[in-house]
Amino acid sequence: MGKTLAKAIPAFQQVKDHVLQKIHNGTWKPGDLIPSERELMQQFGLSRMTVNRALRELTDNQMLVRTQGSGTYVAEGKHQSTLVEIRSIDDEVVARGHRYRSQVLALEVSKTPAALSALEFKTDSVFHSSIVHFADDIPIQLEDRYTNPTLFPEYLEQDFHHVTPNHYMMQVAPMHRAEYSLESKMPDATVRKRLQMEIGEPCLVLSRRTWVRDAVATSVTLWHPGSRFRFTGGL
Fold first, then answer.
1. Residue 74: enclosing H or E segment and its boundaries?
2. Closest by CA position to 125, among listed 146, 110, 108
3. Structural domain of residue 6, as residue ranges?
4. Are residues 69 and 83 in the same domain?
5. Which range (50-54, 197-201, 228-232) has the least confidence?
6. Residue 144 and residue 142: Cα distance in Å, rounded?
C-alpha cells in the first residue's frame, strides 16, 4: 500500500513536501542554505527538471530564495502588517515594494444570525464581502467582512477591485475604536484553496470589529498563510 501511495504523488510534489517538512519542523531555519539541485536529484532519483520545478514553485510561494552562483536558501522575509495602526492591505503591500491586486469572491446581502450578532444589528440583513488580496500574484490575505448597511448604504455598489473596503469605509465614516483577536488556526479546504496553501499549513487569523460612535461598523475575519505573513506592532 505504501508504494502505491508514493506513486500517486507527483515526483516534484515529493520534493516540495520534503523541503516544507524540513522548514516547518525547524531543521532548516530562515537563511539556511538547503541541498543543491544535484544533491536532491541524487536523494530522490529524479531529473533536474523535476527538482527544479519543485524549488521554483517554493520560490514563487516565498518559501525559498534562489541566488545564482550561491544556492537556494530558506526565505526570511514575510509580508507584514501592523496591529497598532489599522492600514489598508493595499498600502501595506505597495509600501513593501510589491504589486497589489484583489479578487472579489462575494459582494452581497447576508441574513445569517452570526453576521447580525457580530454587528449587534436589529434588522434582518447586513452586507457581506469576501475578497482575496494578492502581492505580486501571490495570495496573502482572505478577507471575510460583514458591514453595517446603515453606516455604509452604498457598500454593495463599490468596485473593490480598485478600492479596498477599508479605504472606502474610512472615507465615508472613519472608525472611533476597534477590538481584535489574533490566533493560529488550520484553514478548511475552501480557505486553503483560495490562499493556495499547502496541506497542513496553519493560518494567522485576525478577527476585528470597529465602531463608528456607538454603532458597530464592521466585523471582519482576515486569514493569512502562516508561511507568508507576520504581524508587527509597537507603542
1. strand 71-74
2. 110
3. 2-74
4. no
5. 228-232
6. 7
